[in-house]
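Notes, Module 5: Reading structure tokens.

Key idea: the token line is not a picture. It is a compressed description, and you learn to read it the same way you learned to read a sequence, by spotting repeated patterns. We will look at two proteins. The first is printed below with its tokens.
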Amino acid sequence: MKSALASFVPQEDVGDEAQLAENMVSFNEKVEELKSDSTGEGVTIAILDSGINYDVLDIDLLGGYSYTGEDYFDVLGHGTLTASVIKGNDGAGVAPDVDILAVKVVDDSGRTTTAIVADAIRYAVDAGASVITMPFSLFPVSSYLTEAIDHAVDKGAVLIAAAGNESSQILGKSLAGQEDVITVGSVDCDGTLSAWSNYGSELDFLAPWDVVTLEGADDNEAGTSFSAAFIAGLSALVLSESPEMTSDDVLRELKIITAGIEAENAGYEGYGLIGPEETEKEDVTAGEKKDTEKKIKGVNIDEVMSMQNAQRTNRSRFTGHSMVKENNDGYSCDAFSK
């Protein structure tokens, strides 16, 4: 799914502003047209996140499962916000009739492991999920996790991950850097790449971030997590309308829908398809659950942070999940301990 790019760096001059705005108008029109033809009925999306607060988000759930030793109730708030993008209260969201499978992979302290994510992917696809959205970043990715990704792809599932919110290059060994995972960055309403969005040849799509539908949530909730959820919702609409489509077919349809807001138009130079990219894998024994904890920050629904304030802080602290790297001792380092 990934494409290698000759040069992929941010640029100050993003081209004609009127053209960018026109591209966004065209994108929105295509989304609305698709929504008028499809509601996501008959499609299951598994949301791998911090769970869902079903007291706040009053939607029918296909079911839920927790890998954290807790109920799949969402304490952190991030999973609830993400779910509202896809299926919100009172028919809101991209795909209001989709079936949601809530899979809690982030515990109430904000931690997960690559082994948990791998097991959750297998669970989700075996439970019938056609789309699996992972609105967080993990680094590095183990062989155990790549095997789970392969299993889901073999089953025909569409896997979607957030690019991350550090305004930095996507790493090849991260979840967002995996060949068979659709990676989504964020675009602002004017058609330019969002300041916090990660970038690189691993990006498959850009999508709006201001799409949270939950009443009472901050209007400026932002981040690639919500962009990824938006693309997951669009995927469900496509599959609902044409259930016979393969994951590659869905990818092609998404390319048509998002045409005009690709990275080369939104603020990158040298963007161009020049051939398949080989994604470097972590050297871990196949099937081995060699893992360390990763710290993932969730969004508290009760916390209100303006976009202006957020722009002066680490984007990942309010937009969802942040990448955590392992130190030489094999332990994870808290990205928020600085």
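Here is the second protein, with the sequence above and the tokens below, as before.
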Amino acid sequence: MYSAIQRAIDARASSKLRYSAVQGDTGCSAVITAWNGAIADTRRNRLIIWGGGHSDYYGNEVYALDLNNMTMSRLTDPSLVTNVKSCPEAYDDGRPSARHTYNGLAYITAQDKMFVYGGSKANCGFMSAGTWTLDLGKMEWRDMNPHGGDSPASNPWANIRRAPTVVLSANHKGRPAYASWGVRTDSHSLPSKTIWYQSSSMTSASK
């Protein structure tokens, strides 16, 4: 009995420490208020919200607004942020660090994944050069390891424009598959650009 009680106390203390470490200057409200976006999860009729970043909030947990019953839920817990002062692309558990997401989130309908493009990282505010996907069925993150094309860090105001129509190319001749996204910037009328990232599983095509 004592060990069970002690484990519960230890778990609560660990949870309190975890949540106090992610607060930043603004706190959890910055997931929405600090230049962040969301995606429409059309498969489940909900809004997926992910954000924070810079000095505002360090938590990388994911939230969902269920549009059927208008309730908000937290889908994941925040990572431990022991390396946040190094302005990491990912925390020590391999999940992406919190960031201002701006307009860099999109829903890949055919894959049931959230696509993340760049963003302003915790805690320094530097622009991420990374792209990530979150499998909404498994709630698992994957670093897509961009390997060419335009870096998100070079397009800080990019908007994902063709979210439902991601074009996927199979892995031919030993080259990684890629997704071609049309993006634009608010400050400049630039033509669509191609954002590349590796994927061995995305081999179907849709347009």
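Summary for the second protein:
- The chain is about 10% helix and 25% strand.
- Residues 37 and 134 are 15 Å apart (CA to CA).
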